[in-house]
Sequence to fold (234 residues):
Amino acid sequence: MNLTAQISRAPTAFNLAGQPVVFDATGALWLPEARTLVFSDLHFEKGSSYGRKGMFLPPYDTRRTLSTMIDVIRRWQPRCVISLGDAFHDRGAEARMSREDKDLLRSLTEQHNWVWILGNHDPEPPKYLAGKACEEIKIGGLLFCHEPCASGNWHVAGHLHPAAKVRRGGRSVRRRCFMTDGERLIMPAFGAYTGGLNVCDPAYKPYFASGFSALMLGADQVWQVASSQLRPDG
Fold:
């Protein structure tokens, strides 16, 4: 993605509701003062779920997602890790996970102060995993929950899988993104097969009535895009 006057490198440090946060190019969120790392919408075993319905995808999404998580955790060395809901694609996901993937995930949850925010796909985490399960949690001055709501005091949510599309020089680029108005933030989905809902979709309007910024994920950095440059799908 080329740097232009309206597509620029996102700031290294960003204030969200007065709290410093860092946008990781993988789609994770880092809270430096609380030493907390946040992943949203992991959707483990989405590939195997589709396979059961006759839509065959390579069954390696869980391993790829876990591998990327491990790399990010090693880089930031968090004290606390938050899974912001929908870690598992459905109630049968645990049974379909390979033994090695289960062991990797269990090891991660045992090595860190792990928080499971409950999502609409996973009302409770598997019993063999360590960590605390809750509907919402406040850490570092920010309130985390899975689904955003038009009212309420949430600061960080997931669920909607935001993605942004821009068009430059006759070429379209569509990437997962963070979206924020400086007070509230909707995180991109982290899972390998999760996809995204375009930020121009009316579904987002109740949460950002006064406008928002889209921060698109690049290969190794995050790009802040002016709203005038955002394009709907189609």
